[in-house]
Amino acid sequence: MNLPHKPWWIAGGIALALGVTALSARWLMHAARGTAVPVAVAAATLPQGTRLTSANVTLQAWPDHLLPPGFAADASRLEGRYVRMTLPQGTPILESALAPEGTRGGLSAIIARGRRAMTVRVNEVVGVAGFALPGNYVDVVVNSLHEGTPGHAGSSISKIVLEHVPVLAVAQEANPDETRPHVVNAVTLEVTPAEAEQLDLARSIGTLSLVLRNQVDPQITPTTGATRQTLLGRFSAGPAATATATEVIRGMERSLQR
């Protein structure tokens, strides 16, 4: 029995599918092999401010189609540079994570371009109990001494004056042990020049406290501040209720006693 011949277009389709399959297989094999490109990565976890040396930088082969922008293919060219942020082991060392060439070590190496480092004293107890570590973000709260006319003590006011401010160092450490809290009374913050002026004025007005923020929450929330009057109610801070006057008569004299 003779089988019917298949139409030419079916045979052509099968041939085309086989050709595409063969090309896809060759492409996948090439992609699997890839073209390896050396990329400089952290040989160990590099804390913020670390100076790069041949001991803490190694080369790792990366596929050429996955190369991150700003990578370095020559580890020797990174010698002496400083990292501006903590880099976990195996992380590519990108130009954006490095201080500018020629920068010397220390705190100045990790300050972002156009920003300033400013150290302020904070309350040890309410300064987030020592949990503000370098790399964290905080809000700055000022509690004014008095609010009122000269010579007349007014009600105190607490007000958030700066939000989402990066912490560069606590006390004099840029890389403290993160496994335990550091209860200190001085914190170095990274601020803009305008924020530095506001912060300087705030610390001259009263005491400063820090409020720890979520790392990935940059939202700014305007507030009006809290006073004793708004906190406890309109009449809570007023004078005590006036006692009822009582008329006292002694002989020919009359007087009022309260």
Produce the secondary structure layout.
Layout (H helix, E strand, L loop, with lengths): L7 H26 L2 E7 L14 E7 L52 E6 L15 E8 L12 E14 L15 E6 L1 H13 E7 L13 E2 H5 L13 E5 L2 E5 L1
Antiparallel strand pairs: 1-2, 3-6, 4-5, 4-7, 5-6, 5-8, 9-10
Verbal overview:
The protein is of the alpha+beta class and 258 residues long. It has 2 domains: 74 residues, Type Iii Antifreeze Protein Isoform Hplc 12, CATH 3.90.1210.10; 121 residues, no CATH class. Helix content is 17%, strand content 26%. The chain is built from 3 helices and 10 strands, in the order H-E-E-E-E-E-E-H-E-E-H-E-E. The strands form 3 sheets. Strands 3, 4, 5, 6, 7 and 8 form a 6-stranded antiparallel β-sheet that branches. The longest helix has 26 residues. The chain is elongated, with a radius of gyration of 34 Å.
Mean pLDDT: 75
Distinct helical segment count = 3
* Main beta sheet strand tally, sense and closure: 6 strands, antiparallel
Shape: elongated
Q: Structural class of the secondary structure composition?
A: alpha+beta
Our Rg estimate from Cα atoms comes to 34 Å
| First-to-last CA distance | 129 Å
How many structural domains? 2
Pattern of helices and strands: HEEEEEEHEEHEE
Q: State the share of residues found in helices, binned by percent.
A: 10-25%
